[in-house]
Amino acid sequence: MFKATTVIVQTSMDAMKTGWFSEINDFWPGVSLSLELENTLHREKSQYQDVLVVQTKTYGKALILDGIIQCTEKDEFAYQEMIAFLPLCSHPNPKNVLIVGGGDGGVAREVAKHPNVERIVQVEIDSTVLEVSKKYLPFMGVGLNNPKVTLNVGDGFEFMKQHTKEFDVIITDSSDPIGPAECLFQESYFSLMKTALKPGGIVCSQAGTAWMNLDHVVKTFQHCKSSFAIVDYGITSVPSYPTGQIGFVLGGLSTETNFKVPKRIFTEEELDEMNLRYYSSEVHKAAFVLPRFVEKALKSYRTT
Amino acid sequence: MFKATTVIVQTSMDAMKTGWFSEINDFWPGVSLSLELENTLHREKSQYQDVLVVQTKTYGKALILDGIIQCTEKDEFAYQEMIAFLPLCSHPNPKNVLIVGGGDGGVAREVAKHPNVERIVQVEIDSTVLEVSKKYLPFMGVGLNNPKVTLNVGDGFEFMKQHTKEFDVIITDSSDPIGPAECLFQESYFSLMKTALKPGGIVCSQAGTAWMNLDHVVKTFQHCKSSFAIVDYGITSVPSYPTGQIGFVLGGLSTETNFKVPKRIFTEEELDEMNLRYYSSEVHKAAFVLPRFVEKALKSYRTT
């Protein structure tokens, strides 16, 4: 039924067809994901990074920052739904939410769906990403125009210094710790988020893949634990990310927080109304069940 | 800390360094995983397929058949442990096990660990894979030498016609449905497995990734359901497979089978003794919790 290609072995990438984008980075050495392109929709060097939007053959539109795939139309929902609903559904009443980063708008789109959320403040450092997403990636950019959202262009670090005890949930949707986002994985960042939270507050940060960067996952986990009573690591499947999996470090101020058991359970009808394609309460619980090698690496640091 | 590469955008794969293996196949169009190579350890055209063993830079040794990555040293345990222990731990007493395919030996290695398993019969069509694995991939090939294992070189289809009501569990560890393994995904194959099983028997077959081949997953699921009372689909994370995820279709003859709840629960000490790095009872249960878009696609066919 399926014709195996005749090009079965490449001893060099030179042998491949032209017209592919390849992600190559020292953070995941020796492995590279490539997407076949239809065309480039936009490319611009912003104040902070190289911003590229492409139309791929089978993954839809894709946003690429400094050569790293941030999201593709095919699978971005798995990431956005999980980074939003894991913390939101772990909080008894998430009214005020801060999003740091997330310039494409996908996280804001998901956070705004939660019925308890009244106000979303978003701080994105790179205005070019906001503009590009609104123009070329409307399926995510739409989130930025939600009436619940107040957009700030600036440094999340500086913003939080001016806002104490203001938020129920802080979501950090950053790029990887190899460019402008490096500071968002440090201990000082987690301790600053703590001051910006209301009592019982929760944080959720993109924290990389255990398959490739286990040391980095453990380190981010430790940093979170130094400021939060309850810490956990949840995972989701995202094919266009390195190793096809990404994880989130979550921290809770209250010892009553238990990320493994969602406080808010949505019915199938509610999930349908919110157009959730990945997240459910069962998926929430399963996200914190980790492969043994990951469980072991985090064991001495895990709080539950 | 991490230096972003200066090669940030490839409009063509020609721009990449030489010395990479790239997986390109019509079964997952528009996307390609590449592994950087140290050297080629062996290459041979067998009676059935192109057999290639390479030493990669960061994924260890890898077996590649007809240009498709079958397993890498870095992550093969996630696949082998799950395809073996999901069915074995769903059966009350899995004494006799048939493995169809699995020529690298990884599945036999895992099946032999289960304390109830007394006898493993393996039928692999390509003797070259067996020889190559024993010689170049001893971390998997060792499974073929286990005293519980009886090896047969031949066609699993033909073998089963001669063996009725003989096995408690049948595991089909095949390559993808685009070459010699195509027949192992058909309805007739599931109905033949049924005849080779003892009462209460269970089957588990590699069934591809829902992210890329949802139609194929649904079709394999339907074929299984036409012969088995209880059917389910479980998933695991394997970075070197397309989309970083692969699933298994499981079928049970008895209505008392419930794949979601393992019958055999191993202690942490037992899991350590068996050197299980991925599988645990909690991972077992979580494997059957599916993203909503997969759950919906299978909903009308699922039995539990």
UniProtKB/TrEMBL annotation, chains A, B:
UniProt cross-references to Gene3D superfamilies, sorted A to Z: Spermidine synthase, tetramerisation domain, Vaccinia Virus protein VP39
One Gene Ontology cellular component: cytosol
A Pfam cross-reference name: Spermine_synth
EC number(s) reported in the record: 2.5.1.16
Domain of life according to the entry: Eukaryota
Pathway note: Amine and polyamine biosynthesis; spermidine biosynthesis; spermidine from putrescine: step 1/1
InterPro entries named in the record: PABS, PABS_CS, SAM-dependent_MTases_sf, Spermi_synthase, Spermidine_synt_N, Spermidine_synt_N_sf
Active site: D173
GO biological process terms on file: spermidine biosynthetic process
Catalytic activity line of the entry: S-adenosyl 3-(methylsulfanyl)propylamine + putrescine = S-methyl-5'-thioadenosine + spermidine + H(+)
PABS domain boundaries: 18-253
UniProt KW keywords: Polyamine biosynthesis, Transferase
GO MF entry, a single one: spermidine synthase activity
Coiled coil segments of this chain: none
UniProt record similarity statement: Belongs to the spermidine/spermine synthase family.
Physiological role: Catalyzes the production of spermidine from putrescine and decarboxylated S-adenosylmethionine (dcSAM). Has a strong preference for putrescine as substrate, and has very low activity towards 1,3-diaminopropane. Has extremely low activity towards spermidine.
Assembly, per entry: Homodimer or homotetramer.
Name of the protein this chain belongs to: Spermidine synthase
